[in-house]
Design goal:
Elements: E1 3-7, E2 10-12, E3 18-25, E4 34-39, E5 46-51, E6 58-60, E7 68-73, E8 78-83, E9 92-98, E10 117-118, E11 122-126
Parallel strand pairs: 2-11
Antiparallel strand pairs: 1-3, 3-8, 4-5, 4-9, 5-6, 7-8, 9-10, 9-11
Length: 128
């Protein structure tokens, strides 16, 4: 069974930090570009960041540039999203995904049906 599990979400005050982890089972996540998406209540799911399979290319949505950092440990088969200076607008469920779209100019994909494997999501709440 192909499965992705996210962890590391929680409640944090504005300006705080969280480090999300994405762990795959049943397949090798290192073979895929990997992305983080988020979905806030009443809003569409949006791409936040992606990292290439080799780990050399990354991309971020404008709203998180300079605050979020995506990385991967290819030995441990884990992808991370370090989130700093969190703001209330960052409150959402964060999803990790094994991508079929390369992490480049065509990411994020318009059709989320192209995602190969979705995680179940982890809640991030930024509030004082």
């Amino acid at each position: 069974q192909l499965q992705i599990v996210e962890s590391g979400g929680g409640l944090v005050q504005p300006g705080g930090s969280l480090n999300l982890s994405c762990l795959a089972s049943g397949f090798n996540l290192d073979y895929y570009p990997t992305a983080w998406f988020r979905q806030a209540p009443g809003k569409e799911r949006e791409g936040v960041s992606c990292i290439s399979a080799a780990g050399y290319a990354t991309k971020y949505v404008d709203s998180v540039k300079g605050r979020f950092t995506v990385s991967r440990d290819r030995v441990a088969n884990v992808v991370y999203l370090q989130m700093n200076n969190l703001q209330s607008d960052d409150t959402a469920v964060y999803f990790c995904a094994a991508e079929s779209t390369p992490c480049g100019t065509l990411w994020p994909p318009r059709d989320l049906g192209t995602i190969k494997v979705w995680g179940q999501g982890t809640q991030v709440t930024v509030a004082s």
